[in-house]
Design a protein that fits this description.
Blueprint (H helix, E strand, L loop, with lengths): L10 H12 L7 E6 L5 H13 L14 E6 L2 E7 L8 H4 L2 H4 L3 E5 L13 E5 L1
């Protein structure tokens, strides 16, 4: 596994990383966003979705309570999962996981996937 560390000292730097990732994503890509509460997972996801949509003011609600939000973007459908409240990994299947994997997936709290974690993915750990 290839690993590297980036210093993202503020939201501007985090948004810049999100914008760079956004132009690279295509259907089938899975981005796992890991980190403690308040680490910036939702901020990074929101910035990435806005950049991918080409709409800096796009309303991007957190899927904390709905568990998943989907977006029709120029690069294809994007599914944003927040798995914090999942009781069991299998519950992600009820949220449309198999269909979502045909598009672009952003997953907050990917540890909740357990054995369902895809082998091919980009994992971003925020601290």
């Amino acid at each position: 596994m290839f690993r590297f560390t980036l210093d993202l000292p503020d939201e501007t730097a985090t948004a810049a990383l999100a914008a760079r990732l956004a132009v690279l994503l295509q259907p089938g890509d899975i981005v796992l966003l890991a980190g403690d509460l308040g680490a910036g997972k939702s901020f990074l996801a929101r910035a990435l979705i806005r950049a991918a949509a080409g709409e800096p003011e796009l309303e991007v609600p957190s899927p904390t309570f709905t568990l998943v939000q989907s977006y029709d973007l120029p690069a294809g459908p994007l599914w944003h999962f927040d798995l914090y409240r999942l009781a069991a990994p299998e519950e992600v299947l009820e949220l449309g996981w198999d269909e979502a994997r045909l598009g672009i997936c952003l997953v907050e709290w990917p540890d909740r996937l357990d054995g369902l974690t895809p082998a091919d993915r980009l994992k971003v750990e925020l601290a």
